[in-house]
Amino acid sequence: MSFYANFVFRGITAFGQLCLIWFVGRFVGASALGLMVLNLACITLLSVLVNLGHNIATMRQFALDPHSQKSYRLLFRSAITVALISFVASTFLAISSNEFFDLVALDFAERKVSQLYIYCIFPASMTLLLSGFLKGVGQASAAILSDIGVVSFSSVVLLLIYSSISGGREVTDSMAAYAIIGSYWLVFFASLANFFRGLPRLGNNKHSMGIAEGEWGLHCRTAARLLVVNLAEIANATIPLIIIGSLVSNESLAGFRVAERVATLISFGLVVANITLPAAIGSAISTGNRQGIQDALKSGSKKACLVGIVIAIPLLLFPTYILSNLGVELINSIYILYILMFAQIVNMVTGPTLLTLKISEHTKFVAIWSGITSILYIAFLPISINYFGILGAAILSCMNIVTYNVVSVLYLNMAFGVLAIPFTRRKIK
User: Fold this and answer.
1) Domain segments of the chain: what residues?
2) Disulfide engineering: 401 pairs with which of 172, 318, 343, 417, CB 3.0-4.6 Å?
3) What are the pLDDT digits (tens) for 145-181?
4) DSSP string, 205-219
């Protein structure tokens, strides 16, 4: 299916899906949970229709090529192994999460947000892991990330529709949790279809996936490295929260959390950039085109900057006004928000380099460096809070993010010889 035909098909089905949900909610009177199930069923059906033709062609090729059959079995076992590991790990974290929340004295709403993070981080990251296996087939990677964006957006739209047709009835945390958690897990399993779609290309290019054909040990090591990255990111988000909560007052912790979330809005530009970035970068890496890698990175950074600037400027100029209109109050100094925003601006500009390293053969560096920065951040956090209070936590968080990203940019330059700077025309010699 061509790009334009796929775009039109998805547009028509998405519009029809929203119309169906509106009709059922308006005239049938379905519950919020019923509407979410309908929404997710539509998404699943759409994914099956889009990938059905590709999967039939894939299976036919494997039936005719014994060598591809062996690769197919190895990759299928790898995908299932990763899926099981992610499911067990997310279930364990979800069960044990309440003990951590008790240490920080979070209220009910805060626990919902934190549990949502735990439930979503593994299926989302494992989806990216599968797209990393397909870096030689960039279109599949882009399709996976695009599906994540579509599903997440449709879940939000669904909640808004439900609120409007029910006379402004409040949407509860559990409703949002069902919508977002369910959609991410469905995207994860839908990504398996994209995974199978790209397998026929494996026989044409021995190293198109960054690992040699048939080497099961490399599959496992690649999966393990990315799991280390994901665990380090979870530790980086959870353990500092426990430390801060145990050393400062609940009001200071609440103010820090508000500032952290508002600052993170700037990095929304990374989501926009990453929807199309893997396709171009994956293709350039598989062909050894350094200029292509740099051009793709510059394009992704430019998109992230344009979106992030739109969010950053009003936040920098009118932070108190915007926060009050969002219904939250920044309890601590406004400088905490500015410090965290600076870190997210650096993350926005340099963030695409980390994606490049994750979908290349340099996953080991990402895993090791992520673990090192997380350990240093957690080790020095109590000291910085004792000397500078909640402002010290913000400064250390900023240093952690900036250092992590800057070193990644320097490593990317060393590994590929590219230094992507947005809004420039630097050519590789």
Assistant:
1) 1-214, 226-429
2) 343
3) 445 555 555 555 556 565 555 555 555 545 555 555 5
4) -TTTTSS-TT-HHHH
